[in-house]
Write a structure and sequence with these properties.
Elements: H1 2-23, H2 27-35, E1 39-44, H3 48-61, E2 65-71, H4 72-77, E3 86-92, H5 94-103, E4 113-119, E5 125-130, H6 132-138, H7 145-163
Antiparallel strand pairs: 1-5, 2-3, 3-4, 4-5
Helix pairs in contact: 3-7, 5-7
C-alpha cells in the first residue's frame, strides 16, 4: 500500500512540475494564463507611453472614438503613491457596440471597450483586453456570433498593430 501511495505522489509531483514549467514560458503562455481571467494579452516591444500613443492613434484611424485615457501611474503620483506605468484606453464605436447591446443589454457594463497597457516588475510591457468570448459567456449572449467575431477581429487588429515593431 505504501508503495502505491509513493508512486501516486511521485506521479503527481512530476505532473505538477510539468504544468508549472509550461506556465512559466513567455508571451504565449502569458496569454493562456490570462485567458482564464477572460483576457487576451500580448507583449509590446515599446514603452507603456509609446504603446498607448500608438494604440490611440490606430483606434482613431479606424473610425473609432477614444472616450478616455486613464494614466493610473500619474494618478497614483498625485496622491504620493508609486505604481509602475499603467494606462487604460477606453474606446468604441456605436456601430459595433449597439448590436451587441441589442443581443444582451447587460454587456453595456463592459462597454466601451478597454485596453490596458502596463509594465511588469521585469520592465516588460503588456497589452490586455477582455476576450469577447468571455463577455459572451459572462452575459449569456446567444445568437450573436457575428457581432462577437467582429469585435474580436477589431480588438485583435488594433492590438497587434499597437505592439508591432
Amino acid at each position: 500500500m505504501l508503495k502505491i501511495i509513493s508512486i501516486a505522489a511521485l506521479a503527481l509531483a512530476v505532473s505538477s512540475c510539468a504544468s508549472i514549467e509550461n506556465t512559466l514560458d513567455a508571451p504565449e503562455t502569458m496569454t493562456a494564463i490570462n485567458a482564464k481571467k477572460g483576457l487576451v494579452t500580448m507583449q509590446s516591444p515599446h514603452s507603456v507611453q509609446d504603446t498607448a500613443d500608438k494604440l490611440a492613434a490606430i483606434i482613431e484611424s479606424k473610425g473609432m472614438k477614444v472616450f478616455a485615457r486613464v494614466d493610473h501611474q500619474k494618478n497614483a503620483q498625485g496622491v504620493n503613491l508609486i505604481l509602475r506605468p499603467t494606462q487604460v484606453i477606453m474606446f468604441g464605436n456605436p456601430k459595433a457596440g449597439t448590436p451587441l447591446m441589442n443581443c444582451e443589454q447587460s454587456v453595456a457594463i463592459d462597454l466601451p471597450q478597454k485596453i490596458l497597457i502596463n509594465e511588469d516588475a521585469d520592465k516588460k510591457v503588456w497589452l490586455s483586453y477582455n476576450n469577447p468570448e468571455y463577455l459572451k459567456n459572462r452575459h449569456h449572449i446567444k445568437g450573436c456570433d457575428t457581432e462577437i467575431a467582429n469585435i474580436a477581429n477589431a480588438l485583435n487588429g488594433v492590438s497587434k498593430a499597437a505592439v508591432a515593431k
